[in-house]
Amino acid sequence: MADGGESSINLDYPLKMVASNASNWVVSGYNSFGQLNPSYSGQTIQQFQEFQPPFESNSLLLSCSWSYIAVADGCSLQLQGFVSGGIKIIKSITTDISINSLASCDNFCLILLENGKVYKCSLQNDKEKLEEVNFQRNLTIPVESNFHHGIRHVACGNKIMAAIGTSNEVFAGVTQVYQLPKTIRPKLLVCGFEHALLLTFSGDIYSWGNEEGSWEMMFQASKKFLFL
Fold this sequence. Notes:
- By secondary structure, the protein is mainly β.
- 4% of the residues lie in helices and 49% in strands.
- The strands form five sheets. It has a four-stranded antiparallel β-sheet, with no helix packed on it. A four-stranded antiparallel β-sheet has the order 5-6-7-8, with no helix packed on it. A four-stranded antiparallel β-sheet has the order 9-10-11-12, with no helix packed on it.
- InterPro entries: RCC1/BLIP-II (IPR009091).
């Protein structure tokens, strides 16, 4: 690690960690698929070692599942690990629009472009063509004026996919299930196995997922304030 400490970290079971500061990445953990280091012969990397990203950039995007790592810079995306039915496979994809963020689960990787569109990349498909994810707004849910179509945040787990639209729509899968007030400013969206967490700039957390009850009740009951 260079001086200055970590500026970001990505963690996924089992104990696979990717931490970074402005210019260095280090990794440790399960590596049987060659996702952390294809040339490393052991099953597990016990000590942190430097990760060699495929692109020379100080603004890399990185997301990991237990069997692969996805790295993006600009319009370039690389998947490394258990990909296309084989291990230690490197798959490169180029998009027409710059990539804004990545989200990973065991079966696919989600790519959010800067134009607000989301694409899915299947891990076990040899095709390099990405599949566009079409989110459907619920017309029965009132929306604030000045509605803008597009996705701002996206996340996924093995049993859940979630997204926040540019007009604060909340999507479970591709279906809108809730409309956040325009006064709420989403900051970060993450998913576990079957639940999602949304952190706002004011420090509130909303959670939803595999639970009984209406979406309205779920959101109101889960709201908590964090003293950050």
